[in-house]
Amino acid sequence: MITLIIIALTCVVSFLAFQNIRLMNDLILWPPAINRNREYYRLVTYGLIHADTMHLFVNMLTLYFFGKVMEGLYSSHMGMLGFATFYIGGLVVSILPTYLHNKDNASYRSLGASGAVSAVLFAYVLVAPWTTIRIFFVLPMPAIVYAVLYVAYSVMMDRTGKDNVNHSAHLWGAAYGVAVTLMIQPSLVSHFINEISQPRFGFMN
User: Fold this and answer.
1) Kind of pairing, strands 139-142 and 202-203?
2) Of 116, 125, 7, which is closest to residue 69 (Cα–Cα)?
3) Helix (H, G, I), strand (E, B) or coil at 133
4) Partner residues linked to 27 by β-bridges
């Protein structure tokens, strides 16, 4: 339920922002607004808006598939709003290094839920690393293999800086997702090691 609420809210706000540049500017992560005006809410609201419909679609589709699984785990440990708390934390933690690096850069802006979605995805990998997912609905790949390739690609692109994607947020979101999930359920360490040592494949339901 919380996953669907997050998706619905993000879609509504994103589509409104597509049509309203003022709303987009009010929500986007822009360092001077935080430094000068103390608009700290932007550390969260930047995740409610996206660059275009494809950016929104990919993030929300990924959140739908993996969020509905992880919501149960966080709700059982942290209560009804556990998953929402985890997701919001992912938005904040994934963007903080980027914000601190660019806090004096008035030309910098960032938007999109990719950091928090990465947190959900990598938390899922701890639970079911060998579950097969379909990349772009076609290419079958175990979640753990996708995660490794995702990290490698993000590290490479973050170092080269040849596109306009905040790959740093992806990496910090992934690290946050793994760290917090292991913190609330330490037994997943042995579970993950056991899963990795016994490869088996099966598609997501």
Assistant:
1) unpaired
2) 125
3) strand
4) none
Name residue, tokens 């739908």: 64
Question: What's the rounded mean pLDDT across residues 122-141?
Answer: 81
Tell me the pairing of strands 202-203 and 131-135. Answer: parallel
Task: Say if residues 144 and 125 touch (Cβ distance below 8 Å).
Answer: yes
Q: How would residue 163 be classed by pLDDT, with cut points 50, 70 and 90?
A: very low
Size of the chain, expressed as the number of residues it contains:
205
Task: Tell me the C-alpha distance between 105 and 130, whole Å.
Answer: 42
Contacts (Cβ under 8 Å, ≥6 apart) of 123: 66, 70, 73, 86, 177, 178, 180, 181
How far is the first Cα of the chain from the last one, in angstroms, to the nearest whole number? 17
**Cα-based distances in Å from 88 to 15, 36, 180:** 20, 23, 12
Tell me the C-alpha distance between 69 and 143, whole Å. Answer: 14
40 three-state secondary structure: coil
Q: At what angle do helices 114-127 and 82-101 cross, to 10 degrees?
A: 130
- Is residue 188 over pLDDT 90? yes
User: Residue 181 is inside which H or E element, if any?
Assistant: helix 167-184
| pLDDT recorded at residue 69 | 86
Q: Which two tokens stand for residue 112?
A: 């999109």
